[in-house]
Design brief:
This protein is of the alpha+beta class. 26% of the residues lie in helices and 20% in strands. It binds zinc ion.
């Protein structure tokens, strides 16, 4: 008979920090054996792999600091370093316990500078003088993708005047547009997504809103610039020089980046594209993935074995130029009322302060 208890290294009751305790309950397994550390029976039991996941979520992801572009954790841990971070009183014993069991030390992490936006094409995109040449590269280096008539996508409207009128689901009238990621005086934009949950998320609706959703498809093939792919730039291109990293960070940034995405839209439009496919700002939330994952400071996006996984983190959104419903480029298959039954959040805890 295999003794299952040998794999158990701790339990949720071992921790004093309330956040760690709750996260350990979510990660741990139900098993009525006695915890080897605190001797409790009713805690959720943790194996090494669970404890590592807990430590990563709380200390690494939990200490992530966002910058204008990019983000980096303040803490890392590995088995080469000793514990050298100062932590709040309520988690001191927990840090020592985790570090002892995993055989690791927690230390202040000095990020590689690309993680906080030191990416040359990204810096060039932010400057008026150099932006056009990088925008030109984006339009020529990202692939073309055909959106056929069989692909369905969605657009949600809050309180439309005439809910079943197809025009309600076209690009907003010019007096209401301008604040989004791609539209400009020159080009109105219809935003939609093949993922209905992303549509709901991005629009920040509440349970009180009266919502309608239109199911759409292309009337004839649409020619789109696909910026949701992971661009293969070949060996020798580091994160610091990477156009892929620049674009990845651009779409994870909020409204301070919109003047850049608007100029990409104008350029793609002038090159004859009908619109853009782009990664959703909420991709990371939707897939629950960690932003900017690295192995020894190298981005997963640079490592061929991780590429499919990285691409799967990005959920594509559509930005279609002009007024495609009025122009007959996009047709309405169906319009439904959309009832928000519940709004749910998923979360984990992080360390409050690192000294
Ligand atoms: Zn325990």
């Amino acid at each position: 008979m295999i003794d299952e208890s040998v794999d158990i290294v701790a339990c949720s009751n071992c921790f004093e920090d309330h956040g760690l305790k709750i996260d350990a309950q979510k990660i741990g397994i139900v098993d009525d054996i006695t915890c080897p550390v605190c001797k409790a029976v009713d805690g959720y039991k943790l194996k090494m792999v669970h404890l590592e996941t807990l430590a990563y979520g709380y200390f690494v992801w939990g200490s992530l600091v966002r910058c204008d572009y990019g983000a980096a954790p303040c803490v890392q841990f590995n088995n080469h370093q000793k514990n050298s971070i100062g932590v709040p009183e309520w988690c001191k014993n927990d840090v020592n316990l985790i570090s002892q069991i995993l055989g690791v030390g927690f230390f202040h992490y000095g990020p590689r500078m690309w993680m906080v936006g030191e990416v040359e094409p990204l810096k060039d995109l932010q400057k008026d003088a150099t932006r056009p040449q990088i925008v030109k590269r984006i339009v020529s280096e990202y692939p073309q993708r055909i959106l056929d008539q069989n692909t369905l996508f969605y657009r949600i409207r809050k309180e439309p005047k005439k809910p079943t009128n197809p025009e309600e689901y076209d690009s907003p009238p010019s007096n209401l547009s301008g604040s989004g990621r791609f539209e400009s005086n020159k080009i109105p934009v219809l935003y939609a997504s093949p993922d209905l949950e992303v549509c709901v998320h991005e629009s920040r609706f509440t349970a009180e809103d009266e919502l309608y959703v239109a199911t759409l498809s292309a009337s004839s093939e649409l020619n789109l610039l696909d910026m949701s792919v992971l661009l293969n730039e070949g060996n020798g291109v580091t994160e610091f020089e990477s156009l892929d990293m620049a674009v990845h960070m651009l779409f994870l940034a909020s409204s301070h980046s919109y003047h850049i995405t608007k100029s990409i839209a104008i350029s793609a439009h002038d090159a004859g594209y009908d619109g853009i496919i782009y990664p959703s700002y909420f991709s990371l939330l939707r897939t629950g993935a960690t932003p900017f994952e690295t192995v020894y400071g190298i981005s997963h996006r640079m490592i061929p074995q991780y590429r499919d996984y990285e691409e799967a983190k990005s959920i594509p959104n559509l930005a279609i130029f002009g007024r495609p419903v009025a122009e007959g480029k996009v047709s309405i298959k169906c319009i439904n009322k959309l009832i928000m039954r519940k709004v749910s959040y998923d979360f984990h805890f992080g360390i409050a302060e690192v000294l």
